[in-house]
Amino acid sequence: YKGKWIYEVLISSQGLMQIGWCTLNCRFNQEEGVGDTPDSYAYDGNRVRKWNVTTTNYGKSWAAGDIVSCLIDLDEGSISFCLNGVSLGTAFDNISRGSGMAYFPAISLSFKESVAFNFGSRPLRYPLTGYRPLQDKPATDLVKAHKLLGYLKNVINIGIDISEGKLVERDSSTWQLHGEPTVLITLAHIFNNFAPLMCKVYLVEDVLMNFLLSILEGGGAVEAHPLIQQLLDLMWLLMEDYEVHECLKQLLMSLLRAYRFSPIVPDLGLQIHYLRLTIAILKHEKSRKYLLHNVLFDVLRSVVFFYIKSPLRVEEAGLQELIPTTWWPNRFNKETKEVKEESAEERLRRRAYERGCQRLKKRIEVVEELQVQILKLLLNNKDHGGGGASRYIFLNKFRKFLQENASNRGNLTVLCPPEYMVCFLHRLISALRLYWDEYKLKNPSALSSEDAYVPPQLFYNGKVDYFDLQRLGGLLSHLKKTLKDDLASKASILIDPAEIQAVTMDDLDEDEESALSTAQRPAAALAIGGALARPSWLSSPTLGRANRFLSTAAVSLMTPRRSPGALEKVKVRTLNMEQRTEEDIEGSHGNEGLLLGKPSEEPEQQITENSLLEILDGIVMMYNLSVHQQLGKMVGVSDDVNEYAMALKDTEEKISRCPKRRIDICEELLKSQKVFSEKLNHLSRRLAWINVTIYSKEKMQDIYWLLRVCIRTIEHGDRVGSLFAFMPEFYLSVAMNTYSALKNYFSPVNSMEELPGYEETLTHLAAILAKHFADSRIVGTDIRDSLMQALASYVCYPHSLRAVERIPEDQRISMMRNLLAPYEQRPWAQTNWILVRLWRGCGFGYRYTRLPHLLKTKPEDANLPSLQKPCPSTLLQRHMADLLRSDREMAPSFLNSVLNQLNWAFSEFIGMIQEIQQAAERLERNFVDSRQLKVCATCFDLSVSLLRVLEMTVTLAPEIFLDWSRPSSELLLRRLAQLLNQVLNRVTAERNLFDRVVNLRLPGLESVDHYPILVAVTGILVRLLVDTNFQGAERATAVLLADPCFQLRSIQYLLGHTEPVALGVASSSTDKKHFSLQSYTDYISQEELAKVEQMLGHLSEESKQAAASTLPTSEEDLCPICYAHPISAVFKPCSHKSCKACINQHLMNNKDCFFCKATITGCLDPAGQGRMPGPLLRRVGSTSLPPSSEDTSVKGGCCSAQLSSLLFITPLAGQVLLYAPFRSHCPLQSPEFRYISYHFH
């Protein structure tokens, strides 16, 4: 209970942890950990604090890869900590001591955090004089090992001169074992004693590794030091196999720890040193194959060798010396989004900063080149001595590595960290392309790496295991049943039912033998089928029966079917990932290996070696697993730089405006300026590191190459027809995500426009999105939604929209046809956004990039990310117009679905703002749920976007509404008028619900205002009433005025008139308290305002004439349903009555009478003329009030399926209405919603 003691903690993750010491009296639980009890003491580098019941600031922040030394001095009664060998000072003094007070290492850590302890079983990385490790080093063995190593060095450094019979010194670097008996016997004696010691981790790390590192200290290429190869030969010759295995395992683990936990120095010398030794060891063929088979992927997380960690503390990494001048972009004006001219001083700073970044890049490239050399050794396929080539061992282990990361997404302790995966991906791409192009040089007919793709047969011939990853067409077990005939006819792959039965019975036997492993499989795997019984170290929860079946001889070339025989005749040898040989992968003597089942659509040209194709497939999968996520995460550093730069600029502006007499304020502002400047200096250097290691031009080219690989793979897969369904979903995901990364993550450091073939690549990707977002072969909801979102994003930006316009015309027309499919049959919101973005910039007052009303109230909130600069496509608009005009069934079904969704969205919006208003009026303080506010704003935005689509349709093809020779045109116009009047009435009523909620200015409802929705409605009305021919304007006017909801006051509201004005009287000046389109002259042109005034004058005149010509109607003659129109229809056989508008809408989805529920067999007009029963009236009323019986013939059987669930919200004129949004066309028959109306005159 005395002395000075030390232990080390290797930080593997930088999360929440408290590390230190405690006594046996401490009791810990879920709430109290180390440092939370009186006799426990802890350091927390995540929060930079020390803990002993209370907490105070202490030390520095730690990062993954750091080493924390925990020291306790029981003589002085103090506890202190070191970070990477640098003392953090005394943390605690006067700790409890005395008889029986023993202290033990202790740690509390949050879920999914990981560390490694070294109590002395290995040499301490940062030993401290006077402090002893908790575990004594093996002193006797150390002395013995050093002495034996000295003997070994003597043998190497001294040779025998046979001619003179004496010993002579020689250069150890050129030493070779020539079979001299004396030397060989001497070495055998040395290794007889040395070998057992080399199985101990402490001795391997302290003696052997340091000796091997000393051999490489002279510099030069690794090949210039063959002594290491000679020593490994000696080990395999003079040591037992198990001793060599253990020694190599401990040596590689020591190298991995040394590389991972080495501090970053400016020249990265430590990392380079350890990588050079790793290369020297892996150059030894026998050692390399053993390590690949048993260590690199099974014991070690060998991907660490390809990682270059990012320093959190740039001072310790020496970046201040390497990049002495810092710079960050500060030429951005947040209000106008304009880029200011760069001053001479800024230009000098930027250039100095860029020179520093180039110096850093050259040093990092040395490390990256060494990492690529390691992978080139592992991918060697020419070392056939002593078993299969290294590449095929690597390939099987690599597939298993991918399986573990794909199957354990929720278990972070098993997963490879994303930051490691990013570096591994880039190094693997470099090594793969080197071997690919090397093969191209030897085989000129093969493809170059620039044209690389994965052939489609890999996805359906079962030679490559895709675990439980989703296919485009669904589960593999489903696909191989439904597409069995297509596999036989297109790919010459035969699936024999007898063999299926045999394999299934074999599975049942195996399942009984391995019930325990089966019970451990997740339900998702059992849905596909039970997996093969495997060794415990290779247990796979993902390889289902169907996948296993396809990977056996049950998938064979097309041959005549055999007659079912005994089961043993069809039993086949099954192969798991670990058992595949070179022949299974590359093929030979007519065996196509991985390329079994080549479809006729595939070219005969050889691509490359099959093994490289599987590695390429694995690279694509790696990107999907975690690389894209990490690329997005690291952009946060750049965002931090921009935020601090903006804060610094604001602070400097405040300092310049601060009165000199307010010294106190100036001092605080100067302190803030200093803090921001220091933070920016730190972040700019760290950002330089990240830009070099993650976002450099070379890394961007890797991601771009991967994008092109995916595009070509998808295009080749699409050519095989129905077999395209076998392609894993991640190929489409990676194609979309790599484009997103190139566009959003790598700029402005590097520009995507500079990449070779950029325009062509964009066009190919546009064709894929346009074709496959509605591809029936793709069944997954998530991937279909992702394709739709990607297409929606694609049409937002001019360069990508032009790419869509460059795809073949038939594909463009097909895309627009799919976009115009009825909304009820699919998720429609994204489709609607796409159409809106194609229109934005052409609509009435629809050229803004920021919501105009926000500029008047909250300018700082006006930069909404969704409001891109308008870039309409007249070409795609023309395709849409042609489709709507030419297809007489598409137009009504599409427009009815848009009207239905508008009815629903606006009803939901009104219902929600009513709830919000009620909550705001309560006396007690109520907080409206932010989620409810978000949904409310979304419903409003959807209503606006649907109105814009209607405006687009009315503008491009007005005859759909105004040419009444077309079926359903009049009905569509009446429905449109009804909804437009309803929206106007709700939004323009004085001091109404909408006004009150808008005036609350609730966070989350910023987009809800009069302007967006009223200009959309105005745009539709102007197109119908002003921008059309005389006959069309007359019809639109009559229908609009005939609607019972029409109020002229709502139209007057658009120009700020609160009271009706006489025709010809000049408009009064705009009252600032009221909304007026005239207040938004920056967004609405004078020509557009003139059209609104023309429309108002026209409607004022027409409404006066209609009122004068309308004959008074008694209450008994009014329709008892709407109380708006005269009775114009009598039902058969019950003789109940209503107006034609009500019965027309009712018969769309119901043939029962409103009143008695009798089935309506026909309709009569009041004159007694008969009508045929049918769900849809071709003409409803006439163009004047009251409706006449000009043409009320019923057209039976012409109702489309899309019209079966029409919704209407119609507060009727002349009624007091208790309103509720309803979902049935006739609320009187709805069991859920009813409204009560009281008629008045």
Can you give a write-up of this model?
The chain is an alpha+beta fold and 1241 residues long. It starts with a strand and ends with a strand. The chain is 48% helix and 7% strand. It is elongated. The longest helix has 48 residues, at 610-657. The strands form six sheets. Strands 1, 6, 7, 8, 10 and 11 form a six-stranded mixed β-sheet that branches. Among the domains are: 4-133, SPRY domain (Jelly Rolls); 139-334 and 346-406, no CATH class; 889-1059 and 1075-1108, no CATH class; 1115-1164, Zinc/RING finger domain, C3HC4 (zinc finger) (Herpes Virus-1). It is an enzyme of class 2 (transferase). Its EC number is 2.3.2.27. It catalyses: S-ubiquitinyl-[E2 ubiquitin-conjugating enzyme]-L-cysteine + [acceptor protein]-L-lysine = [E2 ubiquitin-conjugating enzyme]-L-cysteine + N(6)-ubiquitinyl-[acceptor protein]-L-lysine.
In terms of topology, how is this protein built?
Blueprint lengths: L3 E8 L5 E7 L16 E5 L4 E4 L1 E4 L9 E7 L4 E6 L2 E8 L9 E7 L5 E4 L13 E2 L5 H19 E4 L4 E4 L11 H17 L3 H15 L11 H12 L2 H20 L8 H14 L2 H10 L24 H4 L21 H35 L11 H18 L10 H25 L14 H4 L15 H7 L1 H8 L1 E3 L1 H17 L1 H5 L3 H6 L16 H6 L4 E3 L24 H5 L23 H48 L5 H31 L3 H22 L11 H15 L13 H15 L8 H14 L3 H9 L2 H11 L9 H11 L12 H6 L16 H13 L3 H32 L8 H27 L2 H4 L6 H20 L4 H8 L9 H16 L4 H13 L5 H6 L32 H24 L19 E4 L4 E2 L1 H7 L15 E3 L5 E2 L43 E3 L19 E3 L2
Parallel strand pairs: 1-11
Antiparallel strand pairs: 1-6, 1-10, 2-3, 2-9, 3-4, 4-5, 6-7, 7-8, 12-13, 14-15, 16-17, 16-18, 18-19, 20-21
Pathway: Protein modification; protein ubiquitination
Keywords: Cytoplasm, Metal-binding, Methylation, Phosphoprotein, Transferase, Ubl conjugation, Ubl conjugation pathway, Zinc, Zinc-finger
Catalytic activity: S-ubiquitinyl-[E2 ubiquitin-conjugating enzyme]-L-cysteine + [acceptor protein]-L-lysine = [E2 ubiquitin-conjugating enzyme]-L-cysteine + N(6)-ubiquitinyl-[acceptor protein]-L-lysine
